[in-house]
Structure formats: C-alpha cells, structure tokens
Amino acid sequence: MNALAPLPVLLPLCATGLSLAFGTRLKQLQRLISVAVLTAVLGLSVTLMIAADMRGPLTVHLGDFAPPLGITLVADRLSGLMLTVSSAVTLCVLVYSLGQGMADRDEETPVAVFHPAYLILVAGVSCTFLAGDLVNLYVGFEIMLVASFVLLTLGGTGPRIRAGSTYVIISLFSSMLFLTAIAMTYAATGTANFAQLAGRLAGLPLGVQTLIQAMLLTVFAIKAAVFPLAAWLPDSYPTAPAPVTAVFAGLLTKVGVYCMLRTETLLFPGNRLGDLLMAAALASMVVGILGAVAQTDLKRLLSFTLISHIGYMVFGIGLATRDAYGGAIVYVAHHITVQTTLFLVAGLIERRSGTTELTRIGGLAKAAPLLAALFFVPAMNLAGIPPLSGFIGKLGLMRAGVADGGVWAWILVIGSAVTSLLTLYVTAKVWNLAFWRAAPPGQAATGTVLEADSDEDDDGDEGPDRIPGTGDEPVRPRHQPAGRAVAATLHGHAVTTTTKLPLPMTGATAATVALGLAFTVFAGPLTSYTDRAAAELIARAPYVQAVLGR
After folding, report:
1. Is the Cα torsion angle 504, 509, 514, 518 positive or negative in sign?
2. CA–CA dist 16, 117 (Å, integer)
3. Could you give the 3-state DSSP secondary structure of residue 185?
4. Within 13 A of 346's CA, how many CA atoms are on the CB side?
5. What's this model's pTM, rounded to 2 decimal places?
6. pLDDT band of 357, cuts 50, 70, 90
7. From start to end of 57-140, where are the E strands?
8. Other CB atoms closer than 10 Å to residue 539's CB: what's the count?
9. Of 311, 318, 338, 386, whose CA is between 20 and 30 Å from 499?
10. What is the pLDDT of residue 23?
11. Which of these, 318, 253, 309, lies nearest to 286 by C-alpha position?
C-alpha cells in the first residue's frame, strides 16, 4: 500500500509528456488522457485516505534512501483528505474546461497548452500534500508556480499578462524567503526532513526557533493570502479564464493553509505565535469581507470573500487545540469545494450574460433557473446557513474558541459571527442584483458581439468591449442568430455568450455543488475523521514513527 503514495504525483507528470506529444493533432485523445489520469488520481487519493485512517501514516522513501538523504513522501489522515478533495475538484474543473473549450473551439485556451499545464499543476499540488521534507515541499511549490503562470496568462491579453506578472513576482519573493528559511533550518539542524526536525528543532535556542517559524509562516501566509499579505489576489485571479480562476481560488490558497497546519503542529508545537495568528485571522476576516461588500464585479467580490474566509482556517490554527484543528480541517475541505463552485458559477454567468459586472446583469432567476439554483446552494453554504457544511465548520471553530476562553478567542468568535452575517449580506446582494431583479435596460443580448473603438489598456489592440446603454459607448454591435456561440471581448479578455449553457460546464458545476452537499449529508463521518486527523497532528508520534521507523 505504501507504494501507492508517489502515484498521485507521477501519473500527472507522465501524462503531461503524452499530452505534449499528441499536441493539437489528436485533441480528443489528449482530453481522454487528462480525464482518465485525474480519475485515476481521485481513486488513488480515496484509497490512500482510507488506508491512512485504518493503518496509520503511509510512507515511502524514494530510491530506498533513508532520511535525511532521500525524498520521503507521507500520506496521513490530513494529506489523504486534502488529496481526495483536491482530486475531486480538479477533475470537475477539467470537465468544465472541456465543455468551455469545445464550445469556444479552443480559440482562447489552446489544448496543447492548457492540458499539460493543468496536469503539472495537479502534480505540484499532490507533491505538496505528500511532501515529507521542506525541500520537497519547496519543489511542489515551484511546480505549481510554473504551471500557474502559464494558466493565468492563457489568451495572452494585457490584463492577464499584468496579473500573471504580479503573481509571479510575489511568488518568486516568497520562494526566495522559503529557500532562506530552508537553508537556515538545515544549517541549524542538519536536516530538512519533517520527522527529524520534529525532534531537533526543540533543541535550538528559542530565538532561532521563533525566527525559522516566523519565516515559514510568512511564506505560507503569502501562499494562503492571509491579510496583510493578500493584496496580490483580487487583481490576479479574476482576469484568468473561469476554470483556471476556480481551481486557483478554491485550491491553491488552501495549499498554504495546509502547510501552516503541518508545520505548526509537527515542527513548532506549543503555539508560541498563536496570538499573532489570531490577529491575522481577525484582520483577514474583517478586511476581506468589507472589501467584498464594496465590490460590484462578481469575480472580485468572490476573491475578497476568499481572503475573508481564509481567516476562519487561520483562527483554528491559532487556537491550537484538538477541536480547533478539527474545525479548521472541516472548513478547509468545505471551502475548497464551495469557493471552486462559486467561481465556476461566475463563469456560467459570464457565458450567459457576457459580463460578471453585477450592475449590468439581472433577471437570471427567470431566464436561467438552473443557473440560479447552482449559485444559491453554494452561496448559502458559504454564508454558513444551517445545516450546510459551512455552518458545521464555523460552529466547530466557534465552539473551540468558547472552550478556550481567552481574550483573543472570544474576539475571534465575535468576529466570525459578524463575518458570517456580512457574507450572507454579500451573497444576498449578488442574488438580488444578478438573479432576482429584472434585467436592466441595455443588457447585452446573447448572441451579440460587442466591439469597442479604442483600448487604453492594450496599445493598438482591439479594446475591451462596453455594454450599450450604460454610458460606456462608443459600441458597434454586430448581431448573430440567438443561441449561436460568438466571440466577444470584455474588459480585455475573450467572452463567448450562449443562451444554452454547454452540458459539461453545467454538469461539472452541479457535481461540485453535490460534493459540497455531501459534506453536509455525511457530516458525522466527516467530523469524526477530522477529529482523528487533529488528534494525529497533535500527537506527532505516529508521523515520526512511520517515517523513521522508531
């Protein structure tokens, strides 16, 4: 069973080579390879999760080199759950992208580029979750960075290049800081292996321990978009194609949260920086949700809610109790699914209406009732309406805060409640503007290409399109038969509008909605599993014994 641990990393990497070899000549075979590999990764992830729960952590030393020389991969309860949820989400997003790509005739997202980059991204995420040492964790981050830049800049438009450049600059800075932290750790302890560090870091002077811990937390906080290190996110994610934005927002930030959970429990027990983490959690909640309240573009609004709800997870890490860790793990799994779903819905709204600007759309509840239902369920889940999984995760965290009884804990409990209410207000605003009210005058009709006379952002290129009747003229509309897919550009990126949404896109979105509801239906087994995972994290001994054999 241990031999299965490397496969979630190896299979996507091998499939990347096949995908590049086939290129655009055999598009259907390329798509089949991607779907088959991600389905296999999902099956492997479920197997590893069940095996880790029944047998304890699974380990493999690549090349049979013992630590600290060899690369160690470890699948315990936490990494097994993260692998399973991430594999399910990435498979759904891939199916969604196939529906979008086939309908758009792959004009904006060439298959030869998208599929290899997406598979590399999946391999990087899996490598991060399974990494048993700091160096391999860094390698996973860098694999994700390379693939992320390609995916963020698909289409080559000005806004996407600018957003991708910002993302890369921030990521390179965090990578340099990460390398520095790894070098300091190795110089002080002689190893980068997590299991060995769990014993050796405690023997270092307190100041050295705190410095290494602070540097690692800073790196992971940048990845997780924890305030005040989250300013890059709202401008980077919304410009990307809908499936890319969905998988980035739903999954990649949780990689940073996972790393915080792993290092704070295994390497730095004792919660020395707990108050700092809780202060950052409160700031993320408040600043993020206030930013969401001020937005009128759906993608930017969801980006700010993402920052806000990262605060709940950091809240659990800062409390550092078994109940808090369990609640944080539940909330991570819930939020990966729900946030991905909401961004997929945003992509469907953009396809149906030509924009995600809330002031320019309306009447979707009547015009597209299925789309309305696909938004309503995850929106209520995000807001924490009982009995959905968002409520279960928040309740677990708030109960842990009340049980702690500290000043910061009570402040975070109150902040969590206020943030949840403001999230409900934000989702209600989206519902009222985009779905419930009548369509505003001059709303772009489906099947209309909008062309602008000039573009201040992209020198000499055809500019971002404006919606007629809103003061953004001049516009020259060119009509096509209703329901026919036609390309348009809006805010500097290509948009295709259709009356009937492609079945793979709606089906994949419905699957992620169902996954979010499954967390509610199976809340009992889920919370029991996360409680065992939290106990394993706090104990540390099962992880160390599985890796070192003693």
Report:
1. positive
2. 8
3. helix
4. 32
5. 0.87
6. confident
7. 58-62, 71-75
8. 12
9. 338
10. 65
11. 309
